[in-house]
Amino acid sequence: MRLGVYAALLYVSWNHNLLGLPDRIGWSRDGVRAGALGSEANLVAARVARPDLPALHPLILVGPGDHWQPYTSQVGLTGIVVAAVPLPPEWVVPAAAAAMALAAAAVVAAVLVGGQRWLGPPAGDIGCALAAASPAFLPVAPSLYWALGLMLLPFALVWCLAPRAAGRGRCALLAAAVALAVLAKCLCGYEYVTTVVLAPVAAAWFHLHRAAAPLGRRVATAVVVTVAGLAGFAGALGLHVAQHQFVMGTDGVAAIRDRATARTVADPTAEAGASGSRVRVAARCFWGFFEQPAVSVAGGFGRVRADVPLKWVAGAALALAAAAGLARARLPRAAVGLAGAVVLGLAAGVSWQVLAVNHMCVHDHLNRVVFVVPFLPLAFLAVGTAVGLLARWAGPAALVLVGVTMAVNLATAPGRAADDDADQRAAEAAVADVLKAPRPADARVSGVVDSALPAGAVPTSNLADFGWLDLRTGAAADPGALVVQGWVAGGPLRATRPATRVVAVVGDRVVPCDQLRFRRRDVEAALGRPVPGAGYVVRVPAAALATGGALRLFGVGPDGAVTELTAAAGAPATPPAAP
């Protein structure tokens, strides 16, 4: 029962964002979503769209002009499996993404149920509420590329099954299961492999401390599970080399070696395009992750906005661990064991950031996931354990609060969408009036155009995130359309949704366009106040552009103020990534 409740709450939060969390770093949305594909899903979608390729062909990267090339940095297990399903890509890819989100939710739910059993209420309930409110899971839970469920599986296997692995035979079976889980994860990519391999050590420590096992046994167990993980990693490398040789006809050893060198020992300043000493750049990148939100409260898509950064969660978890160590004689062994597991879990996450420093420096929008495996679930259980010392009823209350918030957000989403449509129509009418009777720009609305590119030249990772990827081809759905990005601000200071609208004009006609609104933290920092939905991405259809005439964009305030948006000074030639 509890497993089902936890998994359901986590799934609808991570896949459909019913808590209204910021779903990315930097450019983030906080609305209810459907059909989310997750980060980097374009690589898998492009592979699924090519049934003519060999069955064991790796993923595909589609570039400008629909030029594609094999993505040989991994075997591409998810692409191979999903491509084998005899269904149209536009059906199977979203379904597979939803299945990935459900798998990740089920794995974390199993971890939290175990925590509730061994630590007592309300540890699991509070942990579930916090995990549901964590934006760190949203970009990766449904992702066919990152396979979060597999990333968490080695840790979850030891966490859930170690108490039953009494005797050498069962221990060997558990170690084999860990090796297979790491193998499967590495076939989907080697990213974060040190974290994945070391995470089971934290789970083993927890159970061995509960059982008052001697230090020697703990060390031996840590060695066994680590060696098992390394065996799975080695197996994936061997299969990857074989794929290069027999499917692609290339030197797999050289390809893997070159990729590993670029992500580990190469100069991070060059890789990240940053300036300064290697150590200073790496340190700045490392600390930046602790400024990212680990828990967010949106309260209905912006009506209440508060982020709890990772540094606060890490600091609180380490403080609880230190307190448990000092008061270990007066606390249950499970609570003290959890304190050690929290520290080991954080160390597992940090291991990738240190050993793959270049990957860390260029993936500030992605690498928060290293703290998901397994630090954040353990930290959330630690918070739940601490709350349990004060009030055991808090766990069910937290779950009810999460459920009520989701229900309210879901029930009010159609009304918000209708309000947005009405505001957009009013803005288009205001721009039409300005076209008939031109007047000076209104200073109450400000904004710029950062970039404008044909959809076929926009990275397919962005198109997948925007929902503008044709799953039948793995390329832009309307390659001749123009994708324009920028920001616009104006209207009341305490707005809870975008107060300004963006209207496109081709020639002398207002053109209805697909558009998305994002939170832009950089704009908010520059203006010194929250600006819901300051960022915009507009797709002007190719059919509208074909009629001729110049394209212009206008920002429209809620009171009818109209300003034409012009190109920003030094605007990039390519759109900024949408993390």
UniProtKB/TrEMBL annotation:
Entry keyword annotation includes Membrane: yes
Transmembrane segments: 91-112, 144-162, 174-207, 219-239, 312-329, 335-357, 369-391
Residues spanning the signal sequence: none
Key words, A-Z: Membrane, Transmembrane, Transmembrane helix
Keyword Zinc-finger in annotation: no
Name assigned to this protein: Glycosyltransferase RgtA/B/C/D-like domain-containing protein
